[in-house]
């Protein structure tokens, strides 16, 4: 007896169609649900970031996230070139509770490890601290506002196999 296929898969976004799906998820979640102004949701970092996508079996985008690295990440990570910056993690309302967010975080960490990075930083909305702590992230520094929402910086060391 074979196991049923997973209800979704995660992968690196490739091509304009995937990027459009990533941006639509972000628009639905951040702009639509959280009232983040659209003009600050998308930025110059989108052009060079590694984007990941969670896709349902029917091809529907369920979630996204991005990884900044190198010079693009320096302002968010304290300038350490070996640390990437996870951001813009968003899961559609219908996909919440399915493990999509955790799968996207792991996919971003895999991309970071593939780039030779030794850690991943992120700026978590304070209501999501427990989610990231369960995935091995540790809070550091004071709370700060981003788009009017309280955040904390977090980091997870990546263990190279």
TrEMBL record:
<dbReference type="InterPro" id="IPR000182">
    <property type="entry name" value="GNAT_dom"/>
</dbReference>
<feature type="domain" description="N-acetyltransferase">
    <location>
        <begin position="9"/>
        <end position="159"/>
    </location>
</feature>
<keyword id="KW-0012">Acyltransferase</keyword>
<dbReference type="GO" id="GO:0016746">
    <property type="term" value="F:acyltransferase activity"/>
</dbReference>
<dbReference type="InterPro" id="IPR050832">
    <property type="entry name" value="Bact_Acetyltransf"/>
</dbReference>
<keyword id="KW-0808">Transferase</keyword>
<protein>
    <submittedName>
        <fullName>GNAT family N-acetyltransferase</fullName>
        <ecNumber>2.3.1.-</ecNumber>
    </submittedName>
</protein>
<dbReference type="InterPro" id="IPR016181">
    <property type="entry name" value="Acyl_CoA_acyltransferase"/>
</dbReference>
<dbReference type="Pfam" id="PF13673">
    <property type="entry name" value="Acetyltransf_10"/>
</dbReference>
């Amino acid at each position: 007896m074979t196991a049923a296929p997973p209800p979704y898969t995660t992968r690196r976004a490739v091509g304009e169609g995937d990027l459009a799906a990533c941006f639509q998820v972000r628009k639905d979640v951040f702009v639509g649900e959280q009232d983040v102004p659209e003009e600050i949701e998308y930025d110059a970092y989108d052009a060079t970031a590694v984007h990941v996508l969670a896709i349902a079996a029917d091809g529907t985008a369920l979630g996204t996230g991005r990884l900044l690295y190198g010079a693009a990440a320096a302002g968010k990570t304290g300038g350490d070139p070996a640390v990437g910056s996870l951001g813009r993690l968003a899961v559609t309302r219908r996909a919440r509770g399915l493990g999509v967010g955790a799968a996207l975080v792991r996919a971003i960490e895999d991309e970071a490890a593939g780039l030779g990075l030794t850690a991943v930083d992120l700026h978590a909305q304070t209501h999501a601290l427990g989610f990231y702590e369960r995935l091995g992230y540790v809070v550091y520094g004071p709370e700060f506002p981003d788009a009017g929402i309280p955040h904390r910086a977090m980091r997870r060391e990546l263990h190279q196999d």
